[in-house]
Amino acid sequence: MQLIQRHPQLAANLVADETVDHEHPTVRSTVARLKGAKADAYAYAKAAFEYVRDEIPHSSDSGDLRVTWRASDVLARRTGICSAKAHALAALLRAEGIPTAFCYQRLTEDGAAPALHGLIALKLPGADAWARQDPRGNVPPGVDAQFSLDRERLAWPVRPEFSEVDYPVLFDEPHPAVVAALKAAPDRPSLWPIYPTEL
């Protein structure tokens, strides 16, 4: 699939804002811990990906009813749905000058209960292309999302027969409909009825 960069300027994918608040002390302290003695951008990006994937449970997997949306809150509270975890990973990457965009899939439960699935795409120094990454978490068993630049290793491939979709657009900001739903929901059961099902 050909990924389409929505904003023509690569620098737009480095911006800090209300959602991707990579100047926040919580984000900065996490960056410092992850960076350690990492030798290059690739090693740091892989460490950041694995941290968000493995150390911040997806709230549906853990049963956590809290809804987070701001990157610093996802990191501090250590919970979030896929899109919120994508916000956290983007903040960790952008804080280190790695351009990071937001992208989405429309997934279903074998055709039922459609919902947007949030991912990120990054562009490491010297890379010719963006590479999508899925920090959702490798639960349930059989899910095996991995950090990869040469071929995608996402949690789920889309299944067109169930009206699932890979959206090719790379957004420099999280999609406003996603952020609005996350901000409006007082808890996770309240989130699903208002969470977008498609772009």
TrEMBL record:
Pfam families referenced in this protein's UniProt entry, alphabetically: Transglut_core
Signal peptide: none
Matches recorded under InterPro entries: Papain-like_cys_pep_sf, Transglutaminase-like
Transglutaminase-like domain: residues covered: 30-124
PANTHER family found in the cross-reference section: BLR5614 PROTEIN-RELATED, CONSERVED INTEGRAL MEMBRANE PROTEIN
Name used for this protein in its record: Transglutaminase
Species of provenance: Streptomyces xanthochromogenes
Lineage of producing organism: Bacteria, Bacillati, Actinomycetota, Actinomycetes, Kitasatosporales
